[in-house]
């Protein structure tokens, strides 16, 4: 039996414990499995989800689309791999035989069934709201079990630090991002899913090809154009959910989208009470790099939060808002470069953030990060529109300005 590094969360103490364990499980009880297993050579078979209960016992059951809540997951065994093949051959599948087989199961046979978060389409009552990925990471230096981090809405390798998009399993942070440049695997192995005539989720037999469904532990290769197309589809799904068209940035792919909230006070002299501000945060990473260059867009709806409008488009207003949002234009060790202007009717203020790179003599600083505040109006009277805080890491001011010129953010019809 192959052994892998597995991360187990200690529920009560809230810490992460890394230990070497086998993927086989020791159980105390198992729910009775219904009949109707496909024992033939069909290209699809029902998946049997495996759940561990609070008391350590394990249950196994068929799954319908409505069984999982958005942003949740369950484990299952590849129904076409050796363990389930042996199980299907049994004359009378029962809890005892399944327990015995689970104890022998190989880690590379396990997949994680994930129902997408709502904003990614997880609220759709069909199979489009589901994904199934191998639980073995693709990092070439070490093979570790990956887990779904529902609070972050991504898949994470706790050993290497690699992070994968839940939308398509593409690696978005970490060493394995080099696959985007070298043409080596850059996404987790997957199983395609469907629904049978009784409404149960089925998995289609994988093709064991790195250019197709992938190979557990090796992953799959998604070429540049397909990465862009999948990224655009992801942003389209999120845009439909949020009612705003989120932009693609040339040369970059979106990594995650969040709706964040913050309390702000003292925005101006007329405001005494705090205001609750919600905004959309979109992160991007360079597709032709190892994750060095990055963008983050924080998008504020000025119709909902008119207090954030850049009154008369003055630099002082923009700096005040940047300050309130946590972008402090002051530094003890290094100075900031500030500039203001407009392009294509969009007002902006650019702050170049300097970081200390030397420790002797005079401070030695280099520009690593730019912060730009952009005000985009989508109506004639300027009441609506969006305030966008653009943060670029390891980018020139010229690149930042070119990105801002290309931004076209406005409401979309979600009916």
Major pleated sheet: 7 strands, antiparallel
Number of alpha- plus pi-helical segments = 6
**Global structural class:** alpha+beta
- Return the average pLDDT rounded to an integer: 76
- Strand arrangement within the widest β-sheet reads 15-16-17-21-20-19-18
> What is the N-to-C succession of helices and strands?
EEEEEEHHEEEEEEHEEHEEEHEEEEH
Strand coverage percent: 25-35%
Report how far apart the termini are: 52 Å
Overall, the morphology is elongated
Fraction of residues in helix: 10-25%
Uncertain residue segments = 1-40
The counted number of beta strands is: 21
Kindly provide the radius of gyration, computed on alpha-carbon positions and rounded to a whole number of angstroms.
25 Å
What does this structure look like?
The model is unreliable at 1-40 (pLDDT under 50). 35% of the residues are buried. The longest helix is centred in the middle third of the chain and has 19 residues, at 224-242. The protein is α+β, with helices and mostly antiparallel strands. The strands form five sheets. The chain has a seven-stranded antiparallel β-sheet with strand order 15-16-17-21-20-19-18, with helices on both faces. 15% of the residues lie in helices and 33% in strands. Helix 1 runs antiparallel to helix 2.
């Amino acid at each position: 039996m192959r052994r892998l590094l597995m991360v187990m969360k200690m529920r009560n103490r809230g810490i992460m414990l890394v230990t070497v364990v086998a993927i086989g499980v020791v159980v105390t009880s198992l729910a009775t499995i219904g009949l109707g297993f496909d024992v033939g050579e069909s290209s699809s078979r029902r998946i049997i989800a495996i759940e561990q209960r609070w008391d350590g016992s394990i249950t196994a059951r068929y799954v319908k689309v409505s069984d999982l809540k958005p942003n949740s997951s369950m484990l299952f065994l590849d129904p076409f791999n050796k363990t389930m093949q042996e199980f299907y051959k049994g004359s009378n599948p029962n809890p005892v035989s399944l327990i015995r087989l689970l104890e022998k199961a190989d880690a590379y046979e396990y997949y994680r069934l994930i129902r997408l978060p709502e904003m990614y389409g997880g609220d759709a009552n069909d199979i489009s709201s589901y994904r199934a990925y191998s639980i073995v990471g693709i990092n070439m230096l070490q093979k570790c079990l990956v887990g779904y981090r529902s609070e972050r809405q991504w898949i994470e390798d706790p050993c290497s630090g690699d992070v994968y998009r839940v939308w398509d399993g593409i690696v978005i942070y970490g060493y394995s991002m080099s696959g985007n440049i070298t043409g080596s695997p850059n996404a987790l192995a997957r199983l395609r899913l469907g629904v049978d005539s009784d409404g149960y989720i089925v998995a289609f037999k994988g093709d064991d090809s790195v250019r197709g469904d992938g190979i557990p532990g090796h992953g799959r290769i998604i070429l540049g154009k397909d990465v862009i197309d999948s990224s655009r589809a992801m942003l389209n799904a999120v845009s439909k959910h949020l009612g705003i068209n989120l932009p693609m940035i040339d040369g970059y792919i979106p990594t995650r989208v969040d709706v964040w909230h913050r309390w702000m006070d003292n925005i101006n002299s007329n405001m005494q009470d705090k205001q609750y501000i919600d905004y959309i945060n979109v992160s991007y990473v360079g597709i032709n790099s190892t994750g060095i260059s990055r963008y983050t867009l924080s998008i504020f709806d000025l119709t909902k939060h008119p207090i954030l409008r850049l009154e008369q488009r003055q630099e002082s207003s923009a700096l005040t808002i940047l300050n309130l949002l946590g972008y402090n234009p002051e530094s003890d060790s290094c100075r900031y470069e500030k500039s203001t202007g407009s392009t294509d009717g969009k007002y902006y203020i650019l702050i170049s953030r300097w970081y200390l790179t030397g420790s002797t003599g005079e401070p030695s600083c280099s520009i690593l990060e730019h912060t730009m505040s952009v005000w985009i109006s989508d109506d004639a009277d300027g009441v609506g529109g969006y305030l966008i805080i653009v943060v670029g890491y390891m980018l020139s001011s010229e690149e930042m300005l070119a990105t801002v010129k290309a931004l076209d953010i406005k409401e979309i019809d979600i009916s």
